[in-house]
Amino acid sequence: MTVDIESLLARMTWEQKLLQLQIVWRPSAAEREALIRRGIGSTFWPPSAGETNAAQRIAVEETELGIPLLVGLDVIHGQFTIFPTPLAQAAAFDPAVAELDARVSATEARSAGVNWTFSPMVDVTRDPRWGRVVEGFGEDPYLSSVLTVAKVAGYQGRALDTGDALAACLKHFVAYGAAEAGRDYNTTDVSDRRLRETYLETFRAGVEAGAATVMAAFNALNGIPMHANRALLTGVLKEEWGFDGVVVGDADGVAQLVNHGVVADERAAVVAAIDAGVDIVMGGSLLVDADGVAFVSPDELRVARVDDAVRRVLRLKERLGLFERPYVNASTASTSATERYRELARQAAERCTVLLTNDGALPLPQTGRVLLAGPYARSLDHLGTWVQHFASPVTESLADALATELPHVDWEVVDGCGFFDATDAAVAEAVERAAGADLVVLAVGEPSRISGEASSRADITLPDAQRRLIHALADAGARVVVVLATGRPLVVEDWIERVDATLCVWHLGSEAPAAIARTLSGRVSPGGRVPMTFPRAVGQVPIHYDHERTGRPPRTGGALLPETIAGFTGPNNTDDYYTSKFLDLPLGPRFDFGHGLAYTTFALDGFEMSRTVVSASEAEAGIDATVRVTNTGDRTGDDVVMLFVTDEVASVTQPVRRLRGFTRVTLQPGESVTVAFRIEADHLRFWADGQHRVLEPGDFTLTVSDCTTEHRLGVRLEEAA
Ligand code: BGC
Predict the structure, then answer these.
(1) pLDDT of 353-408, one tens digit each?
(2) 303-319 helix and 266-276 helix, angle to the nearest 10 degrees
């Protein structure tokens, strides 16, 4: 049975239409049932397959129109089996990891009755103060776009009606990640050019990949709150890009137009939002109340716009196959993680760790006495943000996993401090025990709850208690390996050089402890890269590798450090004084985008291009570049080779470089492989303003880099004849 959407629409009353355009934010079970009986079109997941079937049965069999429900849920990095957080997945520099998470999520969630996930979050983010950086793919629009496409493919599968697919939702449209000061929900003000180049790009890629829905963002952008931003929601998204799916508002985002001060009351907010292009309102006042009275009348709201919104919602339900098969098989529905999915989650987690520093302390020795300390030694808090109460919990601690992985090591375990508290006695005990050990593994970090939504931090260092423990151990001369769990890049300046190695493990999900233990032991080689710059100080943010060139780049490097400032009498460094830098910081970040080491070493050589002078049409056809990468060490390991493009002279100031390709390879000792990239004309184009994307002739520099070695080649794009 395919549904005739037009005749269904023709039969609907104004109130029945409005009911299709609302999802109530987390109602109680009783409220939900009442809303469904009234004919509401969508609901948050009632938390079991059986309850979802019961809800669908009321909608399909007991309402006048019998329209099935969209069942939405934030399935962000797993429904029951939890994968690494999205930021951690980005660190894998491997779209297969993101796609796998989305595929497993979709299979588990759809079997349990969810058909719509509010994911992926594709907001590009350059400010680690913002708590939601953990939900996205970091600072780079190219990497983020590749991962956006992978997520959409994973969630939506071959088709939405196959029984194991979810409608994806690209969020939050748009520039939510540019919140001023990194404070969640804050204002954004972004040039049209940067909006196109950086913030819209991931959404464009996701729409092109067929994402079924898009969520409007909480922020105002250039003065217009996104829930009322017609130019972007309708002008760019729906008209320019031809997006024919559903735009959903964020939780109470429509009602909050009143707080933004662009409308006087919620009625005007609903009118403004739907008029601007929002199709489903999330939260806020009921669009049709318990007595069947509509919140807004056809005199206030364009009927054609409402019909268009309803059509989009009904089409999505049809694409999901809900008219034909509204129910799921409750007896076979997923309810918890299976062994097989846990295994996949562990493999994914093993791809995401980043070795930030290592003086040879890692991998760990197979024997000897090792002290495991820090709040993450025994904590089970590895799932990360956006995990619901029904997620399968982590069942073993890092202490358990390390004891299993390295059974011949004589392990001692002590907390030393909590996440936020350290007593003198606990720190002293850790120091004392460290004295009797060959090495200390210090597992520290941000607990999950201090990253994610509404979790911006002004100070992005490790909590004081944990830094105190690090310094106490370093003062005592202990050899220390830090395992750093985090939802964001942290400022690690005060301690990173005092320890012997640091492995960044983000929040790796259900199988985090096993994945971390296997990486520390050397069974798995860490091969991830940071997808967001780690600043030296919070004063550097917003910070990103692809910053534009300035008129006064610092030349000689270094800055006037505090000790110099003490005796400072005036400009004395004529070479480098009036340049763009901080007086009190060395140049550059602590870890640049793409940084990450391995347990082995690599050489990059033989960088070649198929041609170095090209016409525009040749550029359209693509230029091939190759580079050889060799494992020059004595352990198997992964290298990530990145390709960057620099436009040397352009009519608009360009970034110092932009990522245009990347490949992760696994190589045995002594093994070489040739990595190929294709540079397309689109990789050379840039937005000249908000309207025009141009390809300008001139010189470009291509850089291949694996973060320890770089090679450059020039390519010239000739004037059109
Ligand atoms: C978040 C969204 C989320 C929604 C529904 C909001 O607070 O901003 O990302 O999808 O809640 O749970």
Answers:
(1) 999 999 999 999 999 999 999 999 999 999 999 999 999 999 999 999 999 999 99
(2) 60
Q: Which ligand 1 atom lies nearest to the CA of residue 118?
A: 10
Distance (Å) from CA 386 to ligand 1 centroid: 10
Tens of pLDDT along 454-489? 999 999 999 999 999 999 999 999 999 999 999 999
Going by the DSSP 8-state scheme, the letter that residue 294 receives in this structure is: B
**What is the model's pLDDT at position 576?**
75
Rg (CA), the chain: 27
Can you point out the beta strands (E) in 51-177? Answer: 70-73, 116-117, 169-173
Q: Which atom of ligand 1 is nearest to the CA of 135?
A: 9
- Whether 206 has a pLDDT exceeding 70, the answer reads yes
In the numeric block, which tokens belong to residue 656? Answer: 């110092």
pTM: 0.97
The superfamily (CATH) of domain 346-521 is Glycoside hydrolase family 3 C-terminal domain (3.40.50.1700)
Helix (H) or strand (E) holding 312: helix 303-319
Neighbours of 451 (CB within 10 A): 27
DSSP per-residue codes, 546-600: TPBP-SS---S-----HHHHHT--S---TTTSSSSS-TTS-SS-SB-TT--B-SS
| Structure-token match 């999950």, residue found | 448
**Burial of 321 by CB count in 10 Å (0-12 exposed, 13-18 middle, 19+ buried)?**
middle
User: Into which CATH architecture does domain 168-319 fall?
Assistant: Alpha-Beta Barrel (3.20)
Q: How confident is the model at residue 2 (pLDDT cuts 50, 70, 90)?
A: confident
User: What is the CA(371)–ligand 1 centre distance, in A?
Assistant: 41
Exactly one of 101, 123, 140, 250 is catalytic; name it: 250
How many A from CA of 173 to the centre of ligand 1? 12
The three-class DSSP label of residue 641 is strand
Give the helix/strand (H/E) hosting 514: helix 512-521
Neighbours of 291 (CB within 10 A): 5
Q: How far apart are CA 166 and CA 171, in angstroms?
A: 15
CA 365 to chain centre: 34
| Ramachandran angles phi, psi of 395, nearest 5° | -110, -15
Task: Return the domain boundaries, the chain.
Answer: 168-319, 346-521, 548-588, 602-717
The rounded distance, in Å, linking the Cα atoms of 174 and 229 is 10
Q: Does residue 250 carry a catalytic annotation?
A: yes
Q: Which atom of ligand 1 is nearest to the CA of 26?
A: 12
Burial track 459-469 (b if 16+ CB lie within 10 A, e otherwise):
ebbbbebbbbb
Indicate which residue's Cα is closest to atom 5 of ligand 1.
251
Comparing CA positions, the residue from 288, 435, 290 lying closest to residue 371 is 435
Give the Cα separation of 602 and 114 in Å (integer): 45
Q: Report the run of H or E that residue 460 belongs to, with start and end.
A: none
DSSP 365: P
Pairing of strands 501-504, 354-358: antiparallel
Top-level class of domain 602-717: mainly beta
Largest CA distance in the chain: 83
The two tokens of residue 154 are 């994973």
* Pairwise CA distance, residues 376 & 380, whole Å: 8
Instruction: pLDDT band for 142, please (50, 70, 90 cuts).
Output: very high
Determine whether the shortest distance from the Cβ of 170 to ligand 1 is under 6 A. Answer: no
Strand (E) or helix (H) holding 614: strand 613-614
Residue in 519, 509, 513 with CA at minimum distance from that of residue 399: 513
